[in-house]
Design a protein that fits this description.
Length: 342
């Protein structure tokens, strides 16, 4: 097992947070210096979005299909997940009390059922903006946030509007019993945006370099997520809250590519009734990230100039970091945290 002493720099500046381990990576994670002009990145001819494929996962048949984003619980009580294995892309964001929630992007394939579905947060608006005016499903939101969501560039297919797409699973405890039929959800959004480029590029083969990695774990005070390389399967097993994730179809959730993206978090001004504060995850700007694929890890930089633009990930030489084809996971990690690499 090989360690790493990567520095995760802040989004737009600030002190870096060192990774908990011991070796030196093969590429720098420092953000480009404003005083040192960087060459314009030139994509490799072999990198891009395969014709007819999803711009979110590179999976064949995913082009031009409507997009549905669903907020999903990822606590132990939420296991096993229904339908999550069909998502093209999964974002992990911190919420109150150092818990996390998932924002799963479905397009290429719609499962029979998705859940358990949980409530929206203010950061969701910025996270999903590059996807266009997509269908956005959740179990609700605090009253203060509802008018803000109503003004956002999304189509509301939450439980309050698409009520007949939802049902409560009697085999699950409340509040992790809210499930929904994705086909019925999209019936409420006939004009939902179709899959479009959000800055990701794909390649069957990994780029040169990188370092071997067995696993990486991000730990919050009340939750954690890990990605463990499975050589036989050729992908990463997703761990949630100290145990292997589970699916209603059997087996764990799996990631073709896992991204640990260092971001700034501030107080959003929102919170729950018990005094928990909702962080605002700042996904617009620049910073550093770790990208894992094919059992290796690369230190990269990320850039997203504005709300409508997608996030692009660059290797140390300025060329795009290609993702493996398959389900992608992007963990939005506060820059003060230290992921553990083994």
């Amino acid at each position: 097992m090989v360690g790493s002493a990567l520095l995760l720099a802040a989004c737009g500046g600030g002190d870096a947070a060192p990774v908990s381990s011991s070796a030196t990576p093969s590429s720098s994670s420092a953000s480009p210096s404003p005083s040192s002009p960087q060459p314009l990145p030139t994509p490799s001819p072999s990198y891009g979005i395969p014709p007819g494929a999803s711009p979110f996962s590179g999976l064949p048949g995913g082009a031009d299909k409507p997009v549905l984003v669903v907020k999903i619980d990822n606590t132990r009580a939420a296991q096993p997940h229904a339908g999550l294995e069909a998502a093209d892309l999964v974002y992990v964001e911190e919420v109150e009390w150092s818990l996390t929630r998932l924002a799963a992007v479905f397009s290429t394939t719609l499962p029979d059922l998705i859940g358990p579905i949980r409530s929206a947060r203010i950061s969701d608006i910025d996270i999903v903006a590059p996807l266009g005016r997509v269908a956005f499903s959740n179990s609700g939101a605090q009253s203060k946030l509802l008018p803000v969501l109503a003004q956002a560039n999304i189509i509301d297919v939450s439980a309050g509007r698409a009520w007949d797409a939802f049902y409560n699973d009697p085999g699950r405890p409340s509040p992790v019993d809210h499930m929904a039929d994705p086909v019925k959800l999209l019936d409420y959004a006939p004009d939902a945006a179709t899959a479009q480029d959000i800055g990701l590029v794909f390649s069957e083969e990994p780029p040169p370099g990188g370092q071997p990695v067995d696993s990486i774990t991000v730990t919050w005070p009340s939750s954690d997520i890990s990605f463990t390389w499975d050589e036989a399967a050729g992908n990463f097993i997703v761990g949630l809250n100290g145990e292997e994730s589970r699916s209603t179809t059997g087996g764990p959730q799996r990631a073709a590519t896992a991204v640990i993206q260092s971001v700034v978090q501030t107080d959003s001004g929102y919170g729950d009734r018990y005094g928990g504060k909702t962080p605002l995850v700042e996904v617009i700007g620049e910073g550093t990230a770790l990208v894992l694929r094919n059992g290796r890890m690369w230190a990269v930089t990320w850039e997203r100039p504005d709300m409508e633009s997608g996030t692009r990930y660059y290797l140390s030489d300025g060329t795009p970091m290609p993702f493996a084809i398959g389900q992608e996971w992007i963990v939005l990690m506060d820059r003060t945290l230290k992921p553990t690499v083994k």
